[in-house]
Design a protein that fits this description.
- Helices cover 20% and strands 28% of the residues.
- The protein is of the alpha+beta class.
- The strands form 3 sheets. It has a 6-stranded antiparallel beta barrel.
- A hairpin with a 4-residue loop joins strand 9 and strand 10.
- The chain is globular, with a radius of gyration of 21 Å.
- The two termini are 38 Å apart.
Length: 284
Amino acid sequence: TIIDDTIITNLGDEVGLVINAGCKDKDIEHIKDHLEVAKKNGMDVDLKIVDDHELLALQGPKAMEVLSGMVDAKELDLVKMNFMTAQSANVMGIPCHVTRCGYTGEDGFEISVPGENTKEFFAGMLADERVRPAGLGPRDSLRLEAGLCLYGSDIDDTTTPVEANINFVVAKSRRESGGFLGDKIILSQIADKTLTDRKRCGLVITGAPARGGERVFDLDMNLVGTISSGTYSPTLLKPISMAYLNKPFNKVGTDVQVNVRGRMNKATVVKMPFVEARYYRAPE
């Protein structure tokens, strides 16, 4: 099952790990447990907790254009910087760690800023008229449109990556070699589709948006699943949701019903993402 979803970066002699704040305690406990085992096996490893930085995300189609005016291109060449790569650099003269990623489906950057410089950094960003502040509400709408899972809603410690339809997190080399936590269950589920009874899928809904926890029924009123998260899509101008549906009701094009505050709303299973992602690819 899934303990957390994290960003892991190869920093040379170190590995950088960004975890969800809500999972901090259990993540650190989990890492420490395995750290002790590694040390006993002779590995030279340790854990350093960095809690004096803040993480700000600059997202959207103009993110590169904005950030390029705040960095030295000789130090950080954004044109050559691919999606899911990272580098330390000065941003507006502040030493930061810049990762080309984000949870919106758009191009963008997550920037780790020293705590004492966060207000200055934030103000500097907002001084650019192309930048607007946005909280978790807009972020949640965008990540849902992009079909991205939210930990605690769409994935948690009761789901496997295969049930969640995120098999891409298991690289081809790992599928061949195994050797990771949970490999027996995960690799067997990838190899044999009959070992999973449910799958995460997308729904377009008629009527009011269906939120997490709402029940999904087939056309004969048999319970076939549960909504994990949902919203009104500002891009598509219609309600969208993600749900875990029993097979075979997870197939694209299947019509189902969702109980939204006591009213049965029609819904159809669709392919995700709801809105195509626009991640950046550097020119070759």
